[in-house]
Amino acid sequence: MIIKMKNISTPTNQNIANKAILVRVDYNVPLKKVNGKMTVVEPERIEDSIPTIKFLLKNNCRVILMSHLGRPSGKVVKKLSLKPVADYLKTEFNFPVLFSSKTVGAEVEKKAKALEPGQILLLENLRFHAEEKKNDKEFAQQLAKLADAYINDAFSTSHRAHASISSVPKFLPAFAGFHIMQEIAHLADLMKNPKHPFVMIIGGAKISDKVEAVQNLCQYADLVLVGGGVANNFLKAGGLETHKSYLEEKPGDKSREGNNYVKVASNLIEENKTERILKDGYIPLPKLLFPTDVIAAENKDSKKTEVVDLSRGMKDTPDDKDLMYLDIGPKTIKLYKELILQAETIFWNGPMGVFEKEQFSQGTKEIARAIAKSAAYTVIGGGDTIAAIKKFTKEDRFDYVSSAGGASLAFLAGKKLPGLEAVKKSG
User: Fold this and answer.
1) For residue range 135-148, what is the model confidence (pLDDT) as tens digits?
2) Which of 238, 406, 414, 424 is catalytic?
3) C-alpha pair distances (Å), 383 with each of 107, 124, 350, 388, 403
4) At what angle do helices 330-340 and 362-373 cross, to 10 degrees?
5) Among 202, 288, 293, 304, which residue has the least CB neighbours within 10 Å?
6) Is residue 32 classed as helix, strand or coil in its secondary structure?
């Protein structure tokens, strides 16, 4: 079920003015030591929160920001402190930011109470407390004590049932921030009224992260192009040997036990085998396409590569059991590019191969450039995909770039996201 935008509570001048507002942001950004000081090196997620923060400051609010950073596993890890983010907000945006070295407790409550209208307090890393991921009620109540109302502007963590996402809103009037609303609008467009042909491009390593979104979007998409490690499941399902290639057959996540992802791929092929798209207006192609050739090597560090033609079935695949398939091949690249240039709507999540290595980067590079060149409405999702477009083309060539990989896929799968459910209007 897709949550409709009209069902979500949003902040207005009337419901937040002159109040203390607790804002869940996603400041899980890369840090790097520069001149002996930890510094923000990729600020996009911070920048996503700025419209909401500016709106609150304009309305004379006292703003308390909270976020996680990295995976400290419930312990204090100095290098994962949010202090560099507070410094970035002060330096780059000239915001009046104070930093709390604690996340909850009497000291934090005192600092929050002492805030002047128009000031910001950034709390220390939520995940320094194991209670955050455990969705602990008492931890949520301690956070809720700090403010009069709550705003979730962290779409990328809204698929997590964590304390700051799904429990804090139970104790405060709760709203969705401007970034969340922007994410929902762009992603919902893919399912409401996409212009056709709608081409979905799916890559990356794990099929388990993407299969439900693929299953749901297949209802709306005209064509699904598969690459990366995900393609190996489809090759295996089609009776082709994948040798030592990465292949996710069974889930590591216990909640997904019982799934066999080669069988899932086989079912997707079967479910979509009767549908066709016309290439160049007259050549019929299956709705779901996976590589007809790949770039293979002994391992991802190997400089020696070979093109393996998969179009002729098992008998023509190499006998070398040490091979790994690490990128889509030239025939596949050519076909995918031609189809991308016919598209009116494109959604891309996941690289076509191990693009960090030059010898396995061609597929991802060519796909990124073809999407950038197309006249289609384009939505890009996921961290690796963003890294790829930054490496191979210009980010502003795409209509919308979402940093919310897991959350965007969960949304596109039609799932209820805890962070969105928590800010729905009552009644």
Assistant:
1) 999 999 999 999 99
2) 406
3) 36, 24, 8, 9, 6
4) 10
5) 304
6) strand
Residue with the bigger pLDDT between 190 and 127: it is: 127
C-alpha 283 chain-centroid distance: 34
Strand order in the sheet with 174-176: 97-99, 120-122, 62-66, 20-24, 149-152, 174-176
Contact call for residues 56 and 21 (beta carbons, < 8 A): yes
What are the φ and ψ backbone dihedral angles of 135, each rounded to 5 degrees? 60, 45
Least confident span in 247-256, 300-309, 373-382: 247-256
Whether residue 382 lies in the annotated active site:
no
pLDDT at 317: 60
**164 and 141 in contact (C-beta within 8 Å)?**
no
Q: How far apart are CA 326 and CA 385, in angstroms?
A: 16
Q: How far apart are CA 177 and CA 23, in angstroms?
A: 8
Q: What ranges in 137-177 are assigned the alpha helix state H?
A: 137-144
Q: Give the single-character DSSP code of 298.
A: S
Q: Is the backbone of residue 136 left (phi > 0), alpha (psi -120 to 50) or beta?
A: beta
Q: 120-122 and 149-152 as β-strands: parallel, antiparallel, unpaired?
A: unpaired
Q: Taking the CA atoms of the chain, what radius of gyration do you get in angstroms?
A: 23
Cβ-Cβ contacts under 8 Å for 392 (sequence gap 6 or more) = 355, 361, 364, 365, 368, 369
**% of residues, the chain, pLDDT over 90:** 72
Per the annotation, the verdict on 406 as an active-site residue is yes
Q: Which of 383, 390, 397, 414 is catalytic?
A: 383
Question: Which position among 83, 137, 206, 279 bears the catalytic label?
Answer: 206
Rounded alpha-carbon distances, angstroms, from residue 18 to 39, 49, 119, 216, 341: 32, 19, 11, 43, 51
Task: Please state, in angstroms and rounded to a whole number, the distance separating the CA atoms of residues 69 and 126.
Answer: 8
Contact 133, 68 (CB under 8 A): no
With tokens 């384009």, the residue in question is 378
Alpha-carbon gap, residue 46 to 88, rounded angstroms: 9
For residue 375, give the amino acid letter. A
